Amino acid sequence: MDTTTLVIIGVVVVAAIVALIALSGRSRRVGRTALKPLMPEARDRYWARWDQIESRFLEAPDEAVREADALILAMLGERGHPLAENRRPYRLRSARRKMAEGRRRHRTEDLRQALLDYRAAFNKMIGPEIQREAVAEGRRETA
Questions:
Q1: H helices present in 1-127, as ranges
Q2: Mean of the pLDDT values across residues 22-48?
Q3: pTM greater than 0.70
Q4: Least C-beta-crowded within 10 Å: which of 44, 50, 106, 120?
Q5: For residues 119 and 125, what is the distance between their CA atoms, to the nearest angstrom?
């Protein structure tokens, strides 16, 4: 084989590797769903409901955590997020595990940890616009 043949083979191999990498990256993105943004009224409604849930935690932690779960699922549905268990956000799955553990062991600390995970999922799913406004308003920290 001469040098020209080796260069051509090398270019073909590099092009094949680049094509495989591009296709594998594309196949990972195909499963992602573009989330619909929430309307300002919906964001306000979700924030008001979240504040109610957090304020109820001291009185009824089990109920508050169940309501947080329902609220996050409703928000995911409204934004067009797939609701299959394996497609839910990590923090939501983590919160559900902690909620189950807290109910099984009757421990408020597990429920508190679950509520913190629900809050993280809520903050991520509510959208960046509202988070900037909440920081500007000096939203209180709880739990």
A1: 3-30, 40-56, 61-79, 90-105, 108-126
A2: 72
A3: no
A4: 106
A5: 10
